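To assess whether ligand presence alters the predicted conformation, the chain was also submitted together with zinc ion. Input:
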Amino acid sequence: MKAALVHQDLRSRDYRDWREFLRKAEGWSRAEIEAHQLAQLREVLRHAYETTPGYRELWQQAGYDPQASISFETVRQLPFVEKETIRDRLEAFTSFKTRCKYVTTGGSTGIPFGFYRDGTAFARELASKAHQYARVGWKEGDPQLVFRGTVINAQNRIQFYPRFNELRCSSYFLTPEKMERYRVAALTYRPQWLRCYPSSGFLFARFLEESGREFPPLQGILCASENLYDYQRETLRRVFGCRVFSHYGHFELSALAGFCENADTYHVLPQYGYAELLDPQGRPVATPGQMGEIVATSFLMRATPFVRYRTRDYAVFQSHECPRCGRPYDVWERIEGRLQEFVVTSTGRWISMTAINMHDNIFDHLKQFQFVQDQRGVATFNYVPKVSCTPAVVADIHRRLGLKFGDDMQLVMQPVERIEPTKRGKHRFLIQKLPLQGHDN
Ligand SMILES: [Zn+2]
């Protein structure tokens, strides 16, 4: 397999320009960042107000004056826009559709909806992610092994994409037999990077560790699309012996936040959008350790603008500047429960699934597991046992999870032969079937 001469993304002028812009903006001071954000907000608000009846009506009802000067305070007084609002009135909230792609999202929240994305926005999105990856040494054209949601129909579930110099392996088929084929392919291909969902990377790492088989050295692992749990990061680091990089982003292209050169925390990219972290009363969260909902205004999306968009994703605030790299960016410790990652007890307590984030070998005797909840106060723990999994092991897991969840939560232990990935090929470890509306109610 030969490497591509020019990485596909580098053929796009929008991509190259945005990469260059971000490189130049890398050393901006806080004052320069704020000036840029304010200018962007003015432009986004003007555009949304003048070209979409949806935003115009929404803001008129809230007493917004399009002639008044715009400050961060003005923006923080605008009403939120909800997923349901865009879902139900897409045309009213859309500025233009020509040369746009209609994209859909929402599987993780249970509120699927679609919107229009123009080519420039998407090129800038790719360039923004590349900009963050570059912090750990990645560059366009580096050989990479990819386990993501692409459907691969080839018999061996492996496909080489020369335009991106990447070898894609299906994350829908992380069976021992297929993983062995992926491993053998990697021995020849010699990837520098593994790009994956944390869940799929974790399954592959466990397979390598348990089979004791050789794998070529990697420069790093690039995780996305799911929360990266500590136990997953530790396993990836142990098995591959390299840095595990993660970022938070979403299809709506409103907020992007990635690790830096040294710190495993989410640095909010200020040129990408204006991201607020708000408590249930809508007040800014600025206390270290406090969790808030991510509400974001996109600087990229013009076709369907997102202004003060409620993502229903949550983050834990750390600081307004990273102590390790010195960037004056908002830093989030971790991303909390994309809503399905909470269970609710019989007394109405919400428990974040980070609660089961145990730092020991409790799950070593299981191949895979998944929580399913379709009734308050009851969760089913589906697990694929290994040969070493005895009734005593199951009883121990049951007891220890019970201690975490508390008396108002019943746990049903259910051995299963296999656990199916979602439609996008993700391995969710909680399937939440209850219609949970928000962490504050
Ligand atoms: Zn940093």
